Amino acid sequence: MRLVSWNVNGIRACLNKGFLEWLAVEQPDVVCLQETRVHPKQLPPELADIVDYHATWVPAEKLGYSGVATLSRVPPDAITAGLDDPHFDAEGRTLITRHGDVTIVNGYFPNGQRDHARVPYKHAYYKRLLQVVQARRAAGEKVVVCGDLNTAHHEIDLKNWKANRKTTGFLNEERVWLDAFEAVGLSDAFRRLYPDAEDRYTWWSQRGDVRARNVGWRIDYHFVCDALWPRVKDAKIHDQVMGSDHCPIELVLAD
């Protein structure tokens, strides 16, 4: 079972940069997209009816902003849009789907902004999402939380960590929330499998040639619950794939 997560930074823009060609070649079982920036009524025909995939789109109320979508080769057994909280759901940040005995939480976590104005909102989103995840785990569901979490967890997860200690995305109070995920038994799949892997990033600024020089951040994750961990086979970062300022990441599970 191959689960891919990708912040596409506008699905219509990514479409023009080879998204469908990538999908046809890779053919993952489930694809979680973030920052789609599209309402279903705005989808071009080739996205409205993607060959071989069932698609669920959760837009923000504001057109051209945020939004998530989950594509799967087999239709999900259950679909829940949002966190049952209008404070977050108006921004189209969360989609929860169940595929057999695996529940996938597809999240586009808020950006704290340069002036840190949205850091409190970001913290509140982390808290609410974790409440929902824990409730599902208590009900016996095996959960994967994936998406653009907009935070680099450790110094190894960004190139210039010393210069970014006061930058949102690497603030201590943001990193503490990823500690909280791990404290309740949600493992960062890539880092657990590859604890010493350096220079592995998932996002690069669009300014200058930073991607060519690999000056990036690892802010996209698959967090896997303890009950599902024995089935984890690999976690991959497809940093050679273009089309967005983020690259796809992949979690491979045994059936």
Question: Which key features would you list for this structure?
Answer:
7 helices, 27% strand, alpha+beta, 255 residues, Deoxyribonuclease I, Chain A, 6-stranded mixed β-sheet, 23% helix
Q: Helix and strand layout, with pairings?
A:
Elements: E1 2-7, H1 11-15, H2 19-26, E2 30-34, H3 45-48, E3 54-58, E4 68-72, E5 78-81, H4 86-89, E6 94-99, E7 102-108, H5 119-138, E8 142-148, H6 172-183, E9 186-188, H7 189-193, E10 203-204, E11 216-217, E12 220-225, E13 232-237, E14 249-253
Parallel strand pairs: 1-2, 7-8
Antiparallel strand pairs: 1-14, 2-4, 3-4, 5-6, 6-7, 8-12, 9-12, 10-11, 13-14
Helix pairs in contact: 5-6
Structure commentary:
By secondary structure, the protein is an alpha+beta fold. It has a single domain (2-253), classed as Deoxyribonuclease I, Chain A (4-Layer Sandwich), CATH 3.60.10. 23% of the residues lie in helices and 27% in strands. The chain contains 7 helices and 14 strands. Strand 6 and strand 7 (102-108) form a beta hairpin. Helix 5 runs parallel beside helix 6 (172-183). The N and C termini lie close together (6 Å). The mean pLDDT is 97.
